[in-house]
Amino acid sequence: MEEWIKIIGMGRHGSRHLSYEEAVQAAHVMARGEATDAQTAAFLIAMRMKGESPEEIKGFTDIFRRYSLRYKRFPHSLNCAGPYDGRLYFPVTLPVSLLLASAGFSQVLHGSESLPPKLGVSLKELLEGLGVQVELQAKEWEDLFRRIGIGFIWTELICPPFGRMRPVRKQLALRTFLNTVEKILNPVQSQYMIIGVRHETAMDHLIRLLPPLGIETAYAVQGIEGSEDLPTYKPTLVRRVTAWGDTTCTVDPALFGFSGKPLEACSKAEQLELVTRILQGENAPELRNERDHVLFNAGLRLYWFDKVASYEEGFELARELLGRGEPYKLLAKWRELSLQSSLFKLEANAVW
Question: In what residue span(s) does the Glycosyl transferase family domain sit (predicted)?
Fold first, then answer.
């Protein structure tokens, strides 16, 4: 490991990017647990100070995929890649994903326990708070996904190297390039992705990374808290990436009749309450801002990924499904079936 640390940690004038082959070798050492905690921390900090290259990220992504559980391919699904340090505000993508899945568009969520520096509320925590069992093996997950068209992948369960490195990443209390690797791991090989980024440099990396990973169409969104969620109160920079190139645009919610206000920070309990009430179809005045964020983002995604013929049709379909409580019915089914899978596993282990 010392060799790679020296290459990337020699300072502004002495360091250089690792080649793809060098990154692959370094990733193997870290994935096998052969690097000490001190070496792992030094490598991550040096990479952060130098700035990672697309070749380095791809090398680590390719190798960490090899050390992950094997899932069957679900190419016609949408992979939703949000912030791994959690959310301090209403988690728009969670009800949006349930809404899209209730419309027949399969959704893949993923994450782990929240990490620094933000230490917000993770999607894993929220789903567990809603009663969904997320600790499922690959076969159980696949069976459930086929039945309901939505699933959550616990990254540290399916990719052990992330679990081993979690203590180091937590103590560093900084975002590192591994956050990007987690986002684009894509274990079920979805052809569609929507990914949250914090700055345009990350978008530039994704142009080169996503097509070779099998992503047919991806949207990189500089959204709320670095998430894939677009606000209704200001324009958002969005980049569409395909195998044939990329385009950049600014999405102005006012052009679609949305004029909300910034979301307010809220606790885990408050996030769970807001999500539940909105999914159940409530349309109370105090829910309007969060509900409009759900409708806006759901309509955009329905159109972006060719599930409707126009933005207006997407917003109308989202409004209709939400009004009927269809996403909440799907959540109830997800909760029931995931618990059944978990109980079946416990019974089988007891018999064994």
Answer: 85-326
pTM for the full model? 0.94
| 17-to-58, 109, 206, 211, 282 alpha-carbon distances in Å | 13, 31, 17, 21, 52
H-run or E-run covering 182: helix 178-183
Q: Which two tokens stand for residue 116?
A: 């620094």
Q: Give every CB contact of residue 238 below 8 A, 6+ residues apart in sequence.
A: 219, 220, 221, 222, 230, 248, 249, 250, 251
**Architecture category of domain 78-159+177-328 in CATH:** 3-Layer(aba) Sandwich (3.40)
All residues at 6 or more sequence positions from 97 whose CB lies less than 8 Å from its CB, including other chains:
78, 80, 107, 109, 150
pLDDT, one tens digit per residue, over 147-179 is: 999 999 999 999 999 999 999 999 999 999 999
| Assigned fold of 2-66 | 1.20.970
Other beta carbons less than 10 A from residue 36's beta carbon: 11
* Cβ-based neighbour number of residue 265 at 10 Å: 12
Which residues lie below 8 Å from residue 247, measured CB to CB, with a gap of 6+? 239, 240
Q: And the tokens for 192? A: 């569609």
Beta bridge partners of 48: none
Please give the Cα distance from 54 to 146 (Å, whole number). Answer: 33
Alpha-carbon gap, residue 113 to 90, rounded angstroms? 17
**Segment 203-216, tens digit of pLDDT:** 888 888 888 888 99
Q: Do residues 249 and 243 touch, judged by C-beta distance below 8 A?
A: no
Q: Residues 60, 44: contact at Cβ < 8 Å?
A: no
Q: Is the dihedral of CA 129, 131, 132, 135 positive or negative?
A: positive
Range list for CATH 3.40.1030.10 in the chain = 78-159+177-328
User: Low-confidence residues of the chain, pLDDT below 70?
Assistant: 342-352
Tell me the DSSP string of 250-316.
EE-GGGGT----PPPP--HHHHHHHHHHHHTT---GGGHHHHHHHHHHHHHHHHHTTSSSSHHHHHH
Q: What was the pLDDT predicted at 133?
A: 96
Gyration radius (Cα) of the chain, Å: 20
